[in-house]
Amino acid sequence: MSKIGIVGGGPAGMMAAFAASQAGHQVDLYEQNEKLGKKLYITGKGRCNLTNACDSEQFFKMIVRNPRFMYSALNRFNSQDFMTFMEAAGVPLKIERGDRVFPVSDKSSDVIRGFIKSLEKNKVVVFLNNQITGLEIEENRVTGLRLKDGVIKDYDAVILATGGKSYPSTGSDGTFFEILKTAGHTVTPLRPALVPINTREQWPKNLQGLALKNVQLTLYEKNKKIAGEMGEMLFTHFGISGPLVLSLSSLISRDASQYSFKLDLKPGLTEEALDKRISRDFLKYQNRDFSNSLNDLLPSKMIPVIIEKSGIDPFQKVNQITKENRRKLVKLLKCLEMDVESLRGFKEAIITAGGVSVKEVNPSTMESKMIKNLFLTGEMLDIDALTGGYNIQLAVSTGFLAGQNV
Questions:
Q1: What single string gives the DSSP state of each residue in 291-332?
Q2: Residue 128: what pLDDT?
């Protein structure tokens, strides 16, 4: 029996502890917070979208960085395995739109309880309020962990699951990246991902609080289309947020100012169909001012913005609006442009992009190629995915593989 030390009590760390204890090792799990799963507790607005039940091919398409690195981990422990694990731990699950998986109770606390129950059953020793400040390394082999009070605990192997830099209030402060750099690892630049966006224009900020459903948002780098998605978005006091924005933000590289968005408010209609729809509305409200003719078409908060950007006099009678101006209005509704000023910070990011270079980690075991008996998991690695439960699955899959191979 080997003695294993695991740092970090998030999904990757808890799954690593379960897998290592299941393999017969004596496992100590260290968490600097007062409870396990603190970041997991707030995911999905407290509902915890813990994985995605889509097929394997679709899952890999959702991994933004280094999907090939994840082949072994996801082959060994996929979303179906994770769902089976959770239900065995007494957490019934349900599948919602987009194959997103949630606990039936809609409570992330139940997911955390399921993890804890599994750890207790396997006699994992959990140390809460315990900060690890360093690794003990001799001849490129990890031999133990250094606690904040200077005490050194000896271990046969160590698994790191300390997360990235997003939501630093939950303990993800990136400290271990510096420790790993000192030990010889390469850490690719860290930046916020799945994060709201500051826009250069003022008008999105004027729409603060307005949520749009069933719209198409497309991301461009300079004039090159990067990706487009349909769904929900939200206007805020700084720019834009919501599921569509968070997903597309992961595709923005470090120089965010090179990017822009085009918003299609009516993706279900072609320009021709939309023109006919507006013509019908204009006929219906032909004696009204233009400013009072768009209520059937747009949310009231959006109307002043569209009127201003259309260049049509708000007091012009609808029956006097030219065909050319109507066509301009159609094009505006199908292509409303916003320039990215910058990404919001780590405090608002769901995950961190960047991390330990995957070239320096064995994808079949999660063991460091630089330091023997040191395993790296989850958000510490340069892997990330879009929203929808994929990132928690990456964490538990890498955690499981590390625990099994430790």
A1: GGS-TTTS-TTTHHHHHHHHT--TTSBGGG--HHHHHHHHHH
A2: 96
Q: What is the pLDDT of residues 35-72, one digit of tens each?
A: 999 888 888 778 999 999 999 999 999 999 999 999 99
Q: Are 133 and 162 in contact (CB under 8 A)?
A: no
| Residue with the two structure tokens 């990132």 | 391
Token duo for residue 228: 């487009």
Average pLDDT score over residue span 229-251: 94
Mutual angle of helices 271-284 and 323-334, in 10-degree steps: 120
Lookup: tokens for 142: 């990890």
**Would you identify the CATH topology of the domain 196-344?**
Helicase, Ruva Protein; domain 3 (1.10.8)
Q: Give residue 41's pLDDT.
A: 85
For residues 199-222, one letter each, b for 16 or more C-beta atoms within 10 angstroms of the residue's C-beta and e for the rest, the string is: beeebbeebeebebeebbbbbbee
The CATH code belonging to domain 3-190+356-405 is 3.50.50.60
Beta strands 157-160 and 152-154: pairing type?
A: unpaired
Q: Structure pTM?
A: 0.90
